[in-house]
Amino acid sequence: MRELHNKVNHYRAMINRNIKQYTEYKEKIHKITPEKIADVDKEIEVLKVIDSRLNNVSMFLESIILRFETLVLAGNSVVAALAVKDIVKILRQYMKGVPPVLVVLVDKLDEVSKSLMQELKVNYDVKAIVSQSSSEVSKIIDEAKKVAGLT
């Protein structure tokens, strides 16, 4: 998750750089070729929408990572592992229209989630743990979604 969070922030920085460059370009060409300004404005708006989505995802991941660290330190790593599956679903929902490398990282996180679930099934009574921890997981995810504005 931390790798995904870092990549999201990296792409946000790239997008913001592109927005700045397009804005500077627009200022330079507005007198020379005014017909291109509409195209540049459209591109800037698309980049702003993507940046907004990535910002929300970044805040969501940051909040989740903090909660996970707290859970692991408190000895509830099983609850954190169970939550990864739900987090992958949420990320897929909000990662539409973002750079493909970020989607690949979500897929990688999904594989980790499945691996963790397999490991838990071998070592624990998962059904009992899920029923006990589902409200805690839901609370963590709902709180992170509120913080990130994903609700």
From the spread of the alpha carbons, the general shape counts as elongated
Distance between the termini: 20 Å
pLDDT averaged over residues: 83
Order of secondary-structure elements: HHHHH
Instruction: Tell me the helix content.
Output: over 70%
Strand content: under 5%
- Secondary structure class reads mainly alpha
What is the count of β-strands?
0
Total of helices: 5
Count of discrete structural domains = 1
Describe the structure.
With 151 residues, the protein is mainly alpha-helical. The longest helix has 37 residues, at 37-73. The chain has helices at 2-29, 37-73, 77-94, 100-123, 126-148. The chain has one domain (2-148). Helix 1 (2-29) packs antiparallel against helix 2 and helix 2 packs across helix 5.
Give the topology.
Blueprint lengths: L1 H28 L7 H37 L3 H18 L5 H24 L2 H23 L3
What is shown here, in short?
The chain has 151 residues and is mainly α.
Looking at this protein, list some descriptive labels:
mainly alpha, single chain, 151 residues, elongated
